[in-house]
Amino acid sequence: MSGILSTPKIYALIQARTASTRLPGKVLKEFPFGSGKTLIDRIQDRIRTLLDEDQIYYLIPEKDEELRSFLEKRNYRYFCGNLFDVRDRYIQASELLDAKWILRLTGDNPFYDTTHLDQLLQTFQFAKPDLAYVRNLPLGMGGEIFTTDALRWTPDVLEEKHKEHVSLHIKENSERFQILKLSSLLTEKEKEVLPNLRLTIDEPKDFETTAAIFKVFIDQNPLFGAKECIDLYEQNPSLFYGNREVEQIRFQVPAVPEEKKNRIGVLAGNPKQFGSGHFERSRILFALLSARGYEAVWYRDFPKDGDSKLLIIDSRDIPIPEYSKTKILLLDHFGPDRNRYDHYEILPHPKIKDDFSTDQILISPRLKELSVVSESYLLCYAGNIDPQFTKKLDSYLESLCDLEKTDKVIRIGGSSQKSGSIDYYPRISMFEFQNRLAACSGFIGYFGQSLFEAVFLRKKVSTYSIGPVHASLSIVSEKEYGIPYAGDLNSENFGKHRELKKSTRSISGDGYSLLLNEIKKILNS
User: Which pTM was predicted?
Assistant: First the structure.
């Protein structure tokens, strides 16, 4: 994306070589066989949903001509260094790139869980520790991020193991470095399956087993994560048996006594039922709770009373069970249970228009780091609207295009329609969406998180609605924040009001910090 720095000074550095002792040439093998994509391609496909291409580098041995030739043909970026000193490869590459933070990955893990890696990146930007990683993920699905300052620090005795295992010297000195161990978005029951999942590739048995697993997902969901793998194991455990006897080489680090932490549960509305907004903001909050030193627990159903000290519920106005031992915090909840439990608002609403501060709106750490450079296009989020409404919306978008004298509209969601000025994408990654949002000259969408992210970025905006609830929220946004409302797609008058303009209110971006402070108050009350 022109003019966009996605996550400044963060680079994914991926160590890879063809001279693997247990499975030579594995990184260039087709995965799965006949797919036309190698192990390296699979990794690239996943990491490019988190970082721009110019922030992804492969660290390869100096004389690995086969791998160098492959990377050049693919136009993948790389750095050549010492075969026997991987740590030095990282140090030299970080100095050449002027990297501040390094996402360390390896060329034998085609299953990286991009949702958890995104949480890792965003939490690192928020908390700024020396090193962080996500615990309780299947082997081969996680990564780690650390500062170049921590990488370059040298202990009194630098052993051979430190040259191969790049971050080991940091983990062995926990009294010197701040190390964050983040919780995974898995329930306690799902975590019980983890010892049965080996999704890294060291030996031929690993390659055969993981290729068979990957083949199950390749068409329906090529960016599947840990949850999908656990679901597959429960349906077909024998698929994972082929490499369960392969021994994993591990290095022990000194055990650090775990302090007793307040246990906080997070329950977000099902994205399939309530849209992705609840899940997206809750998963970031969940990671930041881990960073603040709480024991964060992810729930998919209401837990038993007393399972957690505090349960945070981010869903629509669903009925809440009776809790007496567990404190409850409701986010954006306006049902009858609002009067029984603590509540906190993170988006405007007609019932609280006089008491709501836009500073409470949650802006992701990554979005706060984006460089904003406007290009000549409009961005529209259309969700799951049907073909009839899509046609109506596109007509409105084309009129805005003429009004704003822009080159085109990029519409995410809705139905496929033929239009010369509208580029249609059924869906894109959150990373790409935020990049496009930061680069657009104006944003059109119905009331929700994306609208206020555009306001935070000081974009020209406009809303439309797809029903009475969204209509009432859009009317409040127009009256309170000066956001133009084009009308409801069900109405014959839709689109007659054509305007894009910046909101009369600004958003500080401190929403997560304010919410974390509120959580601390509730725990201490």
Answer: 0.92
